[in-house]
Write the structure tokens for this entry.
Amino acid sequence: MSTVMHALPDDADLTLSVHDRRALVEWTIACAERLLPMFLAERPDDERPREALDAAQAFMRGELSIDAVREKAFACHAAARAAEDPSALAAARVCGQAAAVAHMAGHARQVPRYTAKAFPGDRDRRDEELAWQRQQVPERFDQYVYDGD
């Protein structure tokens, strides 16, 4: 049994390879899925964050172009601007950043930042969510996401 070893990503490279972006998209989608209900609690009929995550999944499977995913990410950020509740806004931003990783890996660094903003006044819940994210990030991307900029 052979194992393919990939070099650690270059922290200064905001793009990375398609292979690396697909691996990061898998993580960012998992993070965003946990926060999406916070957006839907305020705006249950706004499909844009869900559509952005679905597009990111399609990219991950090689079924959707980067440009198509970017359009969904932009729409998701428009949904964030329409949200009034800080938690809903931050949750939509996480979804938008998750999808944007298809285009540029550096967007993965925004997932923990917006996650932290999703829990104003609830430090315990914020810390719990951030710890979950850190435990889930593929090990080879830990430094890239958390210390890369």
Observations:
- The chain has a mean pLDDT of 93.
- DSSP finds seven helices and no strands in the chain.
- The two ends are 36 Å apart (CA to CA).
